[in-house]
Amino acid sequence: MAGSVNSIPDNGAPKPYICVSRGNEAIAFYRQVFDAVETLKISDPAGKVGHAELTIGEGSMMLCDEFPEYGALSPETIGGSPVVLHIYVKNADATVAKAEAAGATILKPVEDQFYGDRGGKLKDPFGHIWWVSTRIEDLSHDEMRRRAKELYGMS
Known about the structure:
The chain is an alpha/beta fold. The protein has one domain: 2,3-Dihydroxybiphenyl 1,2-Dioxygenase, domain 1 (Roll), CATH 3.10.180.10. It is about 25% helix and about 35% strand. The strands form 2 sheets. It has a 4-stranded mixed β-sheet with strand order 1-4-3-2, covered by helices on one side. The protein has a 4-stranded mixed β-sheet with strand order 5-8-7-6, with helices on one face. Helix 1 (about 25-35) runs antiparallel to helix 3 (about 90-100).
């Protein structure tokens, strides 16, 4: 081997790797709603997505189609997802409306949040849950805690 290999590649930060039942449709949805850019896609001969990488804003994610023989199952198959994907966008209201028009289900309408964001929750057509936010107020952690305590008794 000539030279050394960086054991942690660029953008080696944690990123979601999601499984979907219709990979090509999911990529199209994420492009349409979140302006995702496909940076890599590897498909099997039948067209199923074995691995894809998308850049969304400053972050990235990976996805694949379901491959039950490898334990790769979608939220539709397992009956939901315990994970919520969070994304900041320039306009949460517009993005959530665009997602709904593209087939997402609104789980919590967009509204101002105590921690300084305006956001809402949706389920995409592939069963993944997203919290879509726009920062509307810069708050200290102390102010967030104060508001959480005032509203919910949390500390």
